[in-house]
Each structure stands twice: as C-alpha cells, then as structure tokens.
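Annotated sample (chain length 442).
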Amino acid sequence: MADLLALSTRIVDSGKADEPVNRTSGELSEIAEGLAMVESFSHVVTWNSGDGLVCFDTSHVNTGQQVVDSIRSWSSDPFNALVYTHGHVDHVGGSVAFGANAAALGHQAPRVIGHKNVQQRFDRYRYTNDWNVAINARQFGGIRGDVNSIMNDLRPADGAPRLSDFIPRNTLDTTDVVDKFASMKFGDTEVEFHHGRGETDDHLWSWFPEKKWIASGDFVIWNFPNAGNPQKVQRWPIEWAAALRDMIAKGPELLLPAHGLPIAGKERIARVLDEIATALENLVRDVVTMMNAGETLNTIIHTVRVPEATLGKPYLRPLYDEPEFVVRNIWRLFGGWWDGAPSRLKPSPDEVLAVELASLSGGADVLMRRAAELAASGDLRLACHLADFAGWAAPDEPEIHQMRAEIYETRRKSETSLMSKGIFKGAMRESEKIVKAALGEK
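Output written by the structure step:
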C-alpha cells in the first residue's frame, strides 16, 4: 500500500516529478481513516460513510472489475452510491462491475449521483458511437501499438465486440440528478456536490465540509488542463479556472483527483489550484486580447505562450493536452470555426490544391524530397505540410507514402503530448496502409 500523500508532498514541494504521478496499477491505498483511492484509469476514491461505501467514479469498463476487487479486499460493505464526476467513459464504464458485484452479493443496487447533463452525454455518445471509437483509438494510439490492439483494448474481457457500444452495455444510469448544487447526507456526514464546466459540461466536484476534503474529478489531472482536445467537443477554460477558485475558497486540507496523486495541506493545495487556474486565465486573457485587436487565429497560435517555468511544474506538464490546443478552443468559444484566412472560408479540396502545387513545383516527388530536407533540418511543422500535399497529390504512390510515414513518425517522437503523438501516429498509419496495399500485404 503506497503512501501517496508522502509522495505527492515531496513532488509538489520539490517541483520535480522524478517518478510517475499518473499510475494505473489497480492498487488500493488508504488516504485517511475510512478513505481509500484505487489508482486506475481513472482513479476511484472510496469513502466508508458508515452507511455503505460511496465511490467517486468507477474507472473504465476494462478496469472496473480490478477496481472492485481491490475495494473488496478493503471493505465488504455495500455500495451506497456511485458519484460520476462526469460522463467520460473512463469514469463511468466501470459501473458495470460495481452493479454486478452488488447483485452477486445480494446487495441493493447503488444510487448513481451525477449532473443532469450526464445522460445527455450518454445519448450523444450512442448517436456518434463509431466516431467516438475512431477518435479514441487515434488519440491513444501514439504510444500503444497499432489500431487493432487499441480496438482490442476497447473490448470487454470476454472478447465480445465493443465497437457497437462506446458506452458499455449495462453502464449504470444516474438516479440522483444534480443541477447546479446539491447537498446529501451519508450516515452523519454532509457532502456537497458542485457543478462546474471544465473538461466537460457535466462535471461535479464534491466537498466534505466537516472533513475538509474535495473530490475534484478531472479539474485536477496532474497534467496541463485538458481544455483543448483537438478531436472532442468544446471545453470551458474560463469556468474551469472559476471552479478551481471556488475550491480554494473552501480551504480544503485534502484534495482527491481522478487522475494523479492526492494532495494534503491547505497551503499546498491552494498553491497547486491557483497555479492551474492562473495558467488557464492567462491563456484566455492573451487570446482574447489578440482577438480584440483583430488578429487571426494563425497569428495567435504562433504568438501566445505559457512560460516554460509553468509547464515544468509536476502538475502542469503538457503530456496529455497542450496549451496550443487550448488556444484553439478559446478561439472556437468566442470566434467560431473560421480562422480568419479568407481562402479557408470556402476552400478548394485538399487534393485539388495538392495536385496544383505539385504541378507548379515539378511533381509530388519534389514536394516530398523537400519535406524530407525540412524534417532533417528540424522544421517538422513545414515538413508535414509538404508531406501531406505530396501524399494527397499522389494518393497511391508507395514511395511517397513511405517517406510521409517516416516524417510523421519523426514528428510523433518529437512531441510531448499524448494527443499530438496519437494524431501523428494516425497519419503514419494512413501512409503505411497505402504502402502495404501497393506491395500486396494486408
């Protein structure tokens, strides 16, 4: 059983993350009396309320049973309630295992507490099911093998296809719906549920007034805030920062995130929350200032920066999302989808433009050779532009696509965020598929 508070204290105070902070071992650790955390994808914070177990999140469908087994090694008490901090599948999918465990033990099914938008999210996921399967495979594909292995990760243990149900079958629906605020009593203890928009529009953070605990869900993820994901719906950096400010005002002495390490100490928690909030607030301020000055998205993306000292903090490293993507999301929030370049309001098809550029330059091979030169010199941004144009101009040429795959693999290795790695790995696979088809391989 790890001493997670000692570990987080050392890392926060030193400013150095010299060992992993987002672990998915399935191991349960006691954090305080009657309080435990199972480190998983995502974590499950479990509190013995004296009136049954209250669990904050349930992890993913593939890890839910492991989480339940870990909890059962700690307590055999019935599950009183499951609290969905929000409706992402890595937080709700494990509810299948929780429900099955309650039934197997003859216990009453747990209540499920969640924001009113959780069920709307489930409906949207079902409506756009195949899209969500595809983008999640791409998002996590930059570090986890080929597409087939990623798809297999989205299947249950029995091997039954999961492509037809991005939200797992038998995911427990919410029974106790929260709007902006609710207070509920478990045993002798009051728990407050506060709504705030951040990574999602259905997020709850929970406050224990008597104990001074906060279960923060994904408002704290020990990475730069996931407020800019390039493949997902709108995120809310302004409200995210406001929620963190509200948490600070409560004076918490124990912070329990859904990803990363728990944090103890009122001043330490306030400092971490303030630095995350400030990073978001400064990004919003800088982007909006430039928008008000009439700048285009292109100029803003290549101008607005988060200081390296900020990105070096153990809980603000851009290893999942990154500030450049948050800049785009702020633009989308206030400025819509058009980036300000008139030719891109109603653009020519990419492949038509690519053929024209290849014709002007002397052929797709000329574009690709120049792309390779740029990649070798370190200008991977420009290299990828030319590699794409060459690939679009010569969609069936294996030599062109072999070079494109190599450039995108180099690009993937140069990136820090999982999202960038995944998308660039996806581009590499696109070209590898064309090469294999030309060689008669499967």
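Annotation: The longest helix spans residues 266-292.
Annotation: Residues 144-163 have pLDDT under 50 and may be disordered.
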